[in-house]
Predict the 3D structure of the following.
Amino acid sequence: MASEAVFSHRDPMLQKRDEFEDMLEERRNSSDLRYALRCYTPVLYKGVTPCTAGALKNMVLQSAQIHFVIGQVSNETGRAVDDIQEEASAILEEMAHSLQLSTVRFFAFTLSKVFKTLFRSICVNEEGIQRLQQAIQEHPVVLLPSHRSYMDFLLMSYILYTYDLALPVIAAGMDFMGMKFVGEMLRMSGAFFIRRSFGGDKLYWAVFSEYVKTMLKNGFAPVEFFLEGTRSRTSKSLTPKLGLLNIAMDPFLKGEVFDVHLVPVSISYERILEEALYARELLGVPKPKESTSGLFKARKVLSEDYGSIHVYFGQPVSVRRLSQGKVDRGQFNLTPRHIPKRPSEEIHSFVNDSAYGLVRAQEENMVLKPWVLLASLLLQNHHGDQASGRARGMALDELTEQAVWLRDLSRQYGAFLHWPDHVPPPEVVSSSLSLHRGLLTITEGRVQLASEQAGGPAGPGEPPPVGPEEELLRQAVTVLSCVSYRNQALHVFLRPALLASAVHAASSSGKQEIFNSFSFLRNMFSNEFILCPGATVQDFEEACFLLVKTGALHVSQQEVVVTERGHRTLAFLTSVLDPFLQGYQVVCRFLSEEANEALTEKQFVPTVRKFIIKRLLAGRLRYTEVLSSDLQKNALAALLRLGAVQKIKGAEPGTLKVNKVMVHSLEDALGGNLPTQKPAAVARL
Amino acid sequence: MSCLNFNVSHVLSQLNLCQYLPFHRQEIMKWNGWGYSDSRFLFNKKGQAEFTGKRYKLSGMIIPGLKEWFEGTFGANLQHKSPPILNSSAVRPPTLNEAFVEELKSTGVPFSHDAEDRVFRAYGHCVHEIFALREGRIGRVPDLVVWPNCHNDVVKIVELACKHNVCLIPYGGGTSVSSALECPSEETRSIVSLDTSQMNRILWIDEKNLTAHVEAGIVGQDLERLLNESGYCTGHEPDSMEFSSLGGWVATRASGMKKNIYGNIEDLVVHIKMVTPRGVIEKSCQGPRMSTGPDVHHFILGSEGTLGVVTEVTMKIRPMPEYQKYGSVVFPNFEQGVACLREVAKQVTPDFYLIFSSGHALKPQVSSIFTSFLDGLKKIYITKFKGFDPNRLCVATLLFEGNREKVLQHEKQVYDIAAKFGGLAAGEDNGQRGYMLTFVIAYLRDLGMDYYVMGESFETSVPWDRVLDICQNVKARIVHECKERGVQFTPLSTCRVTQTYDAGACVYFYFGFNYRGLSDPVHVYEQVEHAAREEILANGGSLSHHHGVGKLRKEWMSETVSNVGIGMLKSVKDYVDPNNIFGNRNLF
């Protein structure tokens, strides 16, 4: 019903959000064991009885689609049908979940213990739970949580169990399967495993999609997967992957069910368990392969305080309503529905738009803690200090003043900010700082980022740091951890920041010129942020709306003018985007200066990292966060998309061919000479 | 309770009722409702439902369960009546083309511009048409009614219409449910309704070739009765056969419930004669099949009165069946019932059997009228077969016709297949009752309209693999749309499979709702039906199986037959009728 509300972005201030309840509170006051063993009787879609894992597998293997694909593969390869059937059966064996209530109860008990130790509270919007319960009874439901931590899906199941809702089946990456025992445990708690890549494997795709569709169509359980595909290491939402969403929408588009409801779920962690791990990973210390023993080593995290978690179940989005006027379902009328077909252009762009809309819905309901604002301010200050060469930090009262200012601004932009209004701001600031003291040094009433991370993963076995490079990387761990908090608020400021940067770069106040710059930046950064393709004009209007509403800009038919009181806002907004602008420039510089014929995609990150380290050490680059491999990869993806770099089949697979002229001009554009006249077809206002 | 003999025409001749339609049909038929004036459902003073008149076996009987069903399904209340406002005087005076009328007089063809005659021919039986009539709202109606007596009369009328630029709308049985009979409001010329009812003779029967040459105005029951007297039948029995005409069947591509044995109208016609503004179109011989380019009959079949008037048809006939046997099967649910029908369509040669299934939700209707039947069933199933959920079970009714041995053989075959799908034979009586219902169901809508309940049925055809999905989605869409539009009571939203083909089936949807509290119920109804049709099309269903397009479903024609297809049809229209004499504006 409310999908329109989910996808409308007119005045974010008007957005209504539900209240939260702390579900750990009850756990602290009553027996975990009784809780784990309590009567669990969730309601299901149309009142169906859940089907056993074995029966489900049979349904899949006997489906018309699998029969068809088996026949097809047999024709193409000449292999015997029986043989392929066995393969299909083996794929399914490897993939399928085997949900068992006893395992769920085990998790319910253990997780209660763990969560109580780790977190102060787990807050859930109970109205969202009620909406979900309603939706589950009426339609097949897909749960789409944001993905920031391994914890996410256990947490989801834990919540659903607590509220007596049907437990979801969860699409998980095969890498979990490496952890033998844990993998099986997860399988028994409802996870099913998919290979990370199976490009051309028709049979695998068929088994996989049929498996998901069978569960969905029959309403045996809600299906859960992560639109972002993997955990975001940066706390920035990742651009959505479409494969599973395509599969989930298919039964509706083909008329096999009346509707499918998609429920975006926003999980916000006050402190992410993997905080330092992610930072190291982004800096090129490879991520440890998931292993059971590794998990136990992580045990020491248990002694830390990770603050609270907020889980917000968004409005269910009806695929039927979403597709109205956008997809002609009649396109499936002329071929049997069990014959797999590539989605049409129309469907592809519909799924893509929906996916972006859903990720934005997740973003919007992410709870931001005051610390997120503090991190943004401290980072900006840190960079300012670096530019001036003095590491002075920020006075607490100055930080507080700025934080209050930013609090009001972000609220006007619609941020879901949990700032306790009844507590005096200085106290809010100091308690936020204390939870994250590992990232900070506070001396003489001045705060700055810690130059060395205390309590970080640097074990006692590691040799003490030597040399400026190590020193830099150490610092970078702290900076990237802070960046991951600042990033949580990026979606709030993104569109205004793009506009601010466009205004900043523009030589005149002509609206069309500024729009063109905006459009250029938006296009450049569409691998970096959640910017739905084709929505340039809406985004521009949204940005104008927000900046005009807050009195920072004056926008007329022809002109965009910064107001007197708007300078502070615009300065803040431009510096939000500045690290990214500089980062992309450096990547361009690298490609035009250093890239040789033999550069491959694989070598790209290590070599660009070396280049960046050199520049940072030489003081020619301010932003340590540019060391993030996430930014580097996104920049490369953007350049590939824009055609400035091409992947060719050279001696090595994935050799990169750089169009130096184009890369140079993009660098120039990012450096402030933003193109005001765009080539080719660009939207006009 | 005794039951109605399925063969309605037989009953009618026994009762010795009128044999042909009179000039002034309103003398025996309702002008603002279905069927004969003397036959209707009503709640008597004791609050019991009763069916009046003497024409049907159900006539004069009390129907015990109907009231409960009616109140339970729709939330209707006998205290809340919405009787028709009788006001047929609001008819605008006719716009006559004097020159045309003068010349018409000289031909001797009878005509009338009496208000009642004109209003009667201005409408079909769509909900909005009947509702408007009941409310006394009368829009554009024909200005004149003519009654040609034979093919040559029609030729004269069409010539005069062309000469004087008069708009002609052919009128047969008047049972249209596609707004096909509505006069286009933008039509400024004089509109003449060409009533074919007096062209109702069987001109000859050819026993060697088993064909009959018949005038196109004959209505189904008369055709069947007259052929029966000679020992033959056509086997074409649409639900409307009491009133619909042969010409109408041809013009709309009609289908009858025994089509599995005898075929649809396009399979039954051997030769058609049609009068168009360009002249008469007909083939030169009666060969059973020809390879002479596209079949020109197919320009006529389904032309919905846009090209001319069908005047005479040669039809296939068959000796009356030696043996008839009814039957019924109860399935635990609709899904298994459909699966069984699909299997039967695959395995059993289509001769000599007919199968037709009541969707599970039609069951309440059955149960209300024949409570004892369903109560009996429920008892059986609850005691003996606990797996059957009385709220989900579904009944299929069967009719076998033909040679006795073959009938029995096919019957066994069908019951064996049914058993594989969990179906249980439920006796001949139940089957026979199912058929009887066909003819009285149409009267039920008028009863509903007396108590704020508005209802309609619409049909589609769909491939087998889509049958269950389309049923589920269209039913859900109806409920969903009603809710969205403020209908306060849960609507009746149900379906049944009524015809089976090799490659698919015909599905009927029934939709009814209590419209108390709505300011513009017809508009709500139309929006819901519109949405339901969109849902049908999105789910791979056709625009219509046999009701036709008329004006009601015109907007979907080009997506249905493609723009090129529309162009082909239009170019035929442009050639045959360049001045749009047959100006009912159906189809496109």
Observations:
- Chain A touches chain B through twelve residues (CB under 8 Å).
- The longest strand of chain A covers residues 261-269.
